[in-house]
């Protein structure tokens, strides 16, 4: 590729001479990024495909420009642009030289490398650029080549990580022009918020899905894209049909207990292979497995896992039907929110609890060596039996784990009560999501 061709591509993605679409601001992540920038480390933005990484990068660039950085001091390279052929170190260096030659930036330079994993041995160039203080580097990636562990080895502790998730409920409301800043806003918008929660649960919160009408179509396209490009091709899967069926199975069974051994029987593939496949799903941010809480590590490891999807829209499109499983999807929504909290608080861990009588508590929140909170998600409290089924395990776990912070997340019931001298708080899901 010659420099003229390169420049032409760069001009399409940069602010130098044109307006760039930056979408709706995601202040939460922007503020995080601004703080990370102060560290002068390499910043890595990771997350599922289509979760909004590229848009966020552009928003950060725009923010820098607002703060007085000149447009010429910012270089955005989108390695997914199909016009780049033969992506390698040489080309990366040539792109950089083209930028210097034609744009002639003065002062500190910010380089955004979007979907950097497309460039072989990219880490060499990034480390060199950072070492020689050529630029502040912000990079993004959505798949296995850019996993945290791998990044840590490649960049030898010289980077900071920011994980991006589909829209939180607060962001989701903002995408619908509902801004909640305080309790009064909440009271004023309560009916609207409740009705939006339905769509949040049913369709999930990938930004594009939220903004567009043909939601199922978009989600199906995302699913096929990840499956083909990030998984089957990259991991050289030899039985793609089975692989796909396993992923579908997980999506149909979110918030349920599974063991790799039981899947071995269903799919007639060894438990080891199932476990390996499952790790690919996790590494690509599609699914998460929650372990049973136990003080004994061995028991924890051999107990069944509870599986959750990164996005309920995805689970609902690929897996089961919404109407039949609202409670499970709501539980998945709670898990996704806990995931966001865990990414803010590295001491926080999430488990489920289950005893020999099969009494269950949905979430055990642990911080350092303490059990901080026990959470049940229950969307149908109308029937006394259901209510007892939720409360009994909560009380038992509370005694066993010495934790008095007990929460039941409901569809729309708010209350506080004392049972066996333990205080239980009931809170509607929409309220809990906005509280956090
Ligand atoms: N902040 C945002 N405001 C509006 N739309 C967005 C925003 N973030 C993402 N989108 C929509 O979602 C799509 C995917 O976002 P993108 O940033 O390209 O994801 P990623 O880079 O993580 O794959 C975009 O094409 C756009 O339609
Ligand atoms: Mg992108």
Explain what the structure shows.
With 436 residues, this protein is of the alpha/beta class. The chain has two domains: 162 residues, Rossmann fold (3-Layer(aba) Sandwich); 264 residues, no CATH class. Helix content is 48%, strand content 19%. The chain has 19 helices and 14 strands. A nine-stranded mixed sheet has the order 6-8-7-9-10-11-12-14-13, with helices on both faces. Helix 2 crosses helix 3. The chain is globular and about 75 Å long. It binds adenosine-5'-diphosphate and magnesium ion (MG). Adenosine-5'-diphosphate binds next to helix 3 and helix 10.
**Strands of the largest sheet, in order across it?**
6-8-7-9-10-11-12-14-13
Q: What best-fitting shape do the alpha-carbon axes yield?
A: globular
Name the helicity range: 40-55%
Rg, alpha carbons = 23 Å
- Give the mean pLDDT: 93
Whole-number total of structural domains: 2
Q: What is bound: which ligands?
A: adenosine-5'-diphosphate, magnesium ion
- End-to-end span in angstroms? 49 Å
What is the overall number of helices?
A: 19
